[in-house]
Write a structure and sequence with these properties.
The structure holds three protein chains of three kinds. Chain A is of the alpha+beta class. Chain A has helices spanning 42-50, 92-102, 107-120, 136-148, 166-183, 194-200, 218-223, 228-233; strands at residues 4-13, 16-25, 31-35, 57-62, 65-66, 77-80, 154-158, 186-191, 203-208, 211-216, 240-244, 247-251, 257-258, 268-280, 284-291, 298-305, 317-323, 328-331, 337-338. In chain A, the strands form four sheets. A six-stranded mixed beta sheet of chain A has the order 6-7-8-3-9-10, sandwiched between helices. Chain A has a five-stranded antiparallel beta sheet with strand order 13-17-14-15-16, with no helix packed on it. In chain A, strand 7, helix 5 and strand 8 form a beta-alpha-beta unit. The longest helix of chain A is centred in the middle third of the chain and has 18 residues, at 166-183. Chain C has two domains: 2-47, no CATH class; 61-274, MetI-like fold (Orthogonal Bundle), CATH 1.10.3720. Classes of the chains: A alpha+beta, B mainly alpha, C mainly alpha.
Chain lengths: 343, 317, 280
């Protein structure tokens, strides 16, 4: 149940290839995140899975059935849009009941299911209200209830948290995750926010310019990015990249520490680090600076935990290091990761 | 967590149908409108051209093509030349007046004041009431004996005595003297289009983002400078559209002239529309009528192209 | 002293507005007076035309409704208006929706093309159309008007509705399709209910535009009983060579004011349609 296969799908809008030969298979019951910057094709891909956009080439298979060419209503999927798309002229009850009534389900069953879905999201008391009377968070829950009421095999979400206040977003994220774990529906979630992706996803699909760059668990993607795009897109601040001959050396800011503080049984690489600027963020300290000779200075960021109280003055140079096991190498021309130990 | 059991309809039994197919459905929905327009506007238009090249009359309506004879006959007809001149004269003069007045009025209506709805209703009346009926009102205004305008002029001493401003006669023959008749028609055209032009201009003025005006105030621009550098350039597309539509409505109008003067006195207020009517419909000379009406087409085509150009430029910010 | 300047400007504003309102409305004010003025009062050039010098009378109204075809004109106008509304709704609403939503690129162009046919004047088309009317035996019939009036209501209303449909978010229809409706059902069951205001505008404009129309009515109808109010009043209320001013003004007034009131409410939408949505 809930297995989506995307086979060789491309989508062109005129001369622009929005989605470029994508292959992907979901695992049953997983929370899969499509992550990437605006215009990378993630939303187009989601809309094609839903059936509101048709691919230029390729196939979609849901639960073993080829759905390419079928209209959305025959695919047994549910979708929540960024705007929630609640029917403004209907009450919450009628909104949630809509998918059932559209399929001719009898009234008593409709009532039971709507109450069940509303209960799942704790919006039972809102059933008689109209969408314009609801807050952002309440609307989101109504949209989710409406999506769930049909018990679809796949659940599609298009940036549903971006319309919420920052504070609300974190708690909504948590609730969404717990809800998905409880119900176990395969969920495909689109976002440009890499923090959200890391927090929610069982697996993350990183996309850029219509292509998939990497598919993996959050930890995999973070620790072993497949190319420089993934390395710099995921993680804030992004991975440091230093040019070295025909290779780019990558290391995460939190692995770049004063030489004394680095534990590296396999050894470490040391550089003189000239501090240009420091940001005190409470739990941590971001130190910006240059590595290497002044004339060829390369800009890097170090991320020091708050517990490390070593004073670092602007303008001064200190020995900093990265453990060898934390170094990554990327080919300078292609950007792809080069496996093996760093020099 | 279980829910009440419901078996979904088996997808295999449902097929995507015509009501799902975007392309086909789109064409089906657009078809009636397009077919109607082709049949009732496109086809007659072609027919009008054919008639103009023929010798048809209501007595013998067959389409015998005779070439450009009708256009030549029109051009050598002195009444036609008057009609042609008048069409341009009435249109350009009345619309020039309208553009200025509507701008003034629109600015006034932008301000807050009491009784706005009543004022708006009254000002809109010439456009919102049926044109023929509004013009009937003017027919009385211009009556050769009972005109209230003349009455006021007599009351003020500007008419009716030897020393009067407008002369010793008791009435100005608004519709009987050629110059006055022309002025009368122009006045009614102004009267009719002013409300439309005002509302269009009002819309244009209100769509200028307040930020721009406030920024200019902060920068120290005087009201005159603000008008010159911000308001006028930004509203130019809208003003042009108002002007162009006013031109279309006045240029092709038959009602005002027909109701007021029937084209008189002695054809001095004929316009292309009325002359077409008198020649082609009342007179039964279909070919001549069609030819006369087609003289309007080039101007309309140019105006249509200009309207399109202006509409493309109306993205204010 | 600032308040004096302000007062002067206020005064100036009211004078200006009053002047314009007077200019626009005085023929109608005149109609009100003439409707109720006795003939003797009306036709004495020395009497002040703006006041009732003799007590008002209902004679003109009585004459209008009992001795002329005015009531018939009103009925004819109503019949034509409603029929034209029906035809316009049936053609313009689906077309506007399809053009706004589904026809990428060519939809916009076709929509503009349809709108531009609004600019083809009746005075070019009426000669061929009068031949159509006689060919189909529709002369002197209200059907000639009913079938011809959509030539101006359809182009205009299609364009108006296109702009209107574009303001309804696409999301809602896509959601409806995912929730189980076909594209056609999504249009009829979700979008149209949300478009009631736009559809109402089409109804109002189709009716008022039909009511205002003069040229085709003059061309196709000459039998008095079949006339609409727009041509009936100016052409029929004449005895011999003399206008019956009282009833004439009464007729003009009755036919003008209700339309004007309704039209005024919808004027902003009308203008939005004209300026092609540029005025938001």
């Amino acid at each position: 149940m809930g297995c989506v296969e995307i086979r060789g799908v491309s989508k062109a809008f005129g001369n622009v290839l929005a989605v470029d030969h994508v292959d992907l298979v979901t695992n049953e019951g997983e929370f899969l995140v499509l992550l990437g910057p605006s215009g990378c094709g993630k939303t187009t891909l989601l809309r094609m899975i839903a059936g509101i956009e048709t691919p230029t080439e390729g196939e979609f298979v849901i639960d073993g059935r080829v759905v390419t060419g079928l209209p959305p209503r025959l695919r047994n999927i549910a979708m929540v849009f960024q705007s929630y798309a609640l029917y403004p002229h209907m009450t919450v009850f009628r909104n949630i009941a809509f998918p059932l009534r559209a399929r001719g389900v009898d009234e008593s069953t409709v009532r039971k299911k709507v109450e069940w879905a509303a209960g799942m999201f704790q919006i039972g008391r809102l059933l008689d209200r109209k969408p314009r009377e609801l807050s952002g968070g309440e609307r989101q829950r109504v949209a989710l209830a409406r999506a769930m009421v049909r018990e679809p095999s796949v659940f599609l979400l298009d940036e549903p948290l971006s319309n919420l206040d920052a504070l609300l977003r974190t708690s909504a994220r948590e609730e969404l995750r717990q809800f998905q774990r409880r119900v176990g529906v395969t969920t495909i979630y689109v976002t440009h926010d890499q923090v959200e992706a890391m927090g929610l996803g069982d697996r993350i699909v990183v996309m850029s310019q219509g292509k998939i760059r990497q598919v993996g668990t959050p930890l995999d993607i973070y620790r072993y990015p497949a190319d420089t795009f993934v390395a710099t897109f995921v993680g804030s601040p992004p991975m440091n990249l230093l040019e070295q001959e025909d290779v780019l050396l990558g290391f995460r800011p939190e692995t770049f520490l004063p030489a004394d503080a680095v534990e590296g049984s396999e050894g470490m690489v040391t550089w003189p680090f000239e501090v240009t600027y420091t940001e005190y963020l409470g739990a941590e300290r971001l130190v910006y600076g240059n590595v290497g000779e002044k004339s060829k200075g390369r800009h890097v960021i170090a991320r020091l935990p708050g517990s490390l109280t070593l004073p670092l003055d602007t303008g001064k140079t200190y020995p900093f290091a990265v453990a060898r096991r934390d170094l990554r190498r990327f080919d300078r021309k292609s950007g792809l990761a080069v496996p093996g130990d760093a020099a | 967590m279980t829910s009440p059991a419901v078996s979904p309809p088996s997808p295999e039994t449902e097929r995507a149908g015509i009501l799902d197919r975007e392309g086909t459905l789109a064409k089906l929905l657009i078809a009636p409108a397009v077919l109607y327009i082709v049949a009732m506007i496109g086809f007659p238009f072609v027919l009008a051209i054919l008639y103009s090249l023929s010798s048809s009359t209501t007595g013998d309506p067959s389409l015998k093509i005779v070439g450009l004879r009708n256009f030549g006959a029109a051009l050598s007809d002195p009444v036609f030349r008057i009609a042609l001149r008048n069409t341009f004269l009435f249109t350009l003069l009345s619309q020039a007046i309208v553009i200025v007045l509507s701008r003034v009025l629109a600015n006034a209506l932008m301000k807050a004041f009491r009784g706005k709805w009543i004022v708006r209703f009254l000002i809109m009346l010439p456009w919102t009431a049926p044109i023929s009926l509004g013009t009937i009102g003017w027919l009385w205004m211009y009556d050769s004996i009972f005109s209230p305008i003349d009455w006021v002029l007599r009351y003020l001493g500007a008419l009716g005595s030897a020393a009067a401003l407008f002369g010793p006669q008791t009435n100005l023959y608004w519709l009987g003297v050629p110059g006055l008749a022309i002025a009368s028609v122009i006045i009614v055209n102004v009267w009719r289009i002013l409300p439309l032009a005002t509302v269009i201009q009002l819309g244009g003025l209100s769509s200028i983002p307040r930020d721009l005006i406030e920024a200019a105030e902060v920068d120290g621009a005087t009201p005159w400078r603000r008008t010159l550098s911000i308001t006028i350039p930004l509203t130019l597309p809208i003003v042009s559209i108002a002007f162009l539509f006013g031109i279309v409505f006045t240029f092709t109008d038959l009602v005002v002239v027909y109701v007021l003067t029937r084209g008189g006195p002695v054809h001095m207020t004929q316009v292309l529309s009325t002359w077409t009517f008198f020649k082609g419909i009342e007179g039964g000379d279909l070919a001549q009528g069609a030819a006369i009406s087609l003289f309007m087409f080039p101007v309309l085509a140019v105006v249509a192209a200009l309207i399109l150009r202006m509409a493309r430029r109306t993205e204010v910010v | 002293m600032a308040s004096l300047g302000k007062l002067a400007r206020r005064g100036g504003l009211y004078t200006l507005l009053g002047g314009f309102a007077f200019f626009s409305a005085f023929p109608f004010y005149w109609m009100v007076i003439a409707t109720f003025k006795r003939d003797h009062d009306l036709f004495s050039p020395l009497n002040n035309p703006f006041l009732f010098n003799e007590p008002p009378t209902l004679d003109h109204l009585r004459l209008l409704f009992t001795e002329t075809h005015f009531a018939g004109y009103l009925t004819n106008t109503l019949v034509v208006g409603l029929a034209v509304v029906a035809i316009t709704l049936a053609t313009a609403v689906p077309a506007a929706y399809a053009l706004a939503r589904w026809a990428r690129g060519w939809g916009e162009t076709l929509g503009i093309g349809i709108f531009l046919t609004y600019l083809v004047p009746p005075t070019i088309l009426f000669i061929p159309l009068s031949r159509f009317a006689s060919y189909f035996g529709l002369q002197e019939s209200l059907w000639s008007l009913i079938l011809v009036y959509p030539t101006f209501t359809i182009p205009f209303c299609t364009w108006l509705l296109m702009g209107f449909f574009k303001t309804i978010p696409k999301d809602i229809e896509e959601q409806a399709m995912i929730d189980g409706l076909s594209r056609f059902e999504a249009m009829t069951k979700v979008v149209f209910p949300l478009a009631v205001s736009g559809i109402l505008t089409v109804v109002v404009f189709s009716f008022t535009l039909s009511m205002h129309e003069f040229i085709y009515a003059l061309t196709f109808i000459s039998v008095s009983a079949k006339k609409t109010v727009s041509i009936g009043v100016p052409t029929e209320l004449v005895r011999g060579d003399v206008f019956q001013w009282g009833p004439l003004m009464a007729g003009a007034l009755i036919a003008s004011i209700p339309v004007a009131v309704v039209y005024t409410f919808f004027l902003d939408r009308f203008v939005a349609g004209f300026t092609m949505g540029a005025v938001k």
